[in-house]
User: What shape does this take?
Amino acid sequence: EVQLVESGGGWVQPGGSLRLSCAASGFTFSSYNMGWVRQAHGKEREFVAVLRRTTGNTYYGDSMKGRFTISRDNAGNTMYLEMNKLKPEDTAEYYCNADRVVNVEGAKIELWGQGTLVTVSS
Assistant: This one.
């Protein structure tokens, strides 16, 4: 069974840190780009970060740069998101995402986790 399972969410005070994990199973983890998106209550889904499988390059949403770090452990089939200097506006459900292009036309396989809630408040 193909699965992405997030963990590590919770409550943290402003300025604090959290580390999210995304455990993958049922597919070839190393063949996929891995990323995170988030969605705050009543708002649209927002890009957080992505780590490209071929280059290892990382990209972040503007408000995450310098505070968040995405990484992956291909041997352990796990992706991480280290979040520092958290702000109340980082409060959201965080979703793990995996994708890969499967043909020359650019068709994609896209996988999603169920989400983990991060709450930043005092």
Summary: The CA atoms of residues 112 and 119 lie 21 Å apart. The radius of gyration is 14 Å. The chain is about 0% helix and 50% strand.
